[in-house]
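Hey, quick one: can you model this chain's 3D structure?
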Amino acid sequence: MTSQRFEPDLLRQEVLELTEMLRNEEILEDLRTLLQRSGIDPQQARLAGFREDASGFEGGVLIASDGNVYYFERNVSQSEFSAFHTVDDPATFFDTYPALSVALEMDIS
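Sure thing. Here's the predicted structure for all 109 residues.
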């Protein structure tokens, strides 16, 4: 089910841009390291949503190469996740991370 509030093409573009950032941007190197420690290959994952604020909070949802959806939270000053878990019902995150709805249908190599 695709969120009706946003154009699917814009949501797909967001997933492509976030995934490119996850895989290649230097500023996300520490996030890639944490994902690898958690058993997720960031070069094979799709970043379907990402939020950050001025306090150093980062949170998001990603889809691993095995199709599992994960939610994560962390403070950039910490070297570990404050939350990291499998999402059993991805639809519960569509309001917060609308691009997740289309990311589930995308194939990004």
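One thing worth noting: The longest helix spans residues 8-24.
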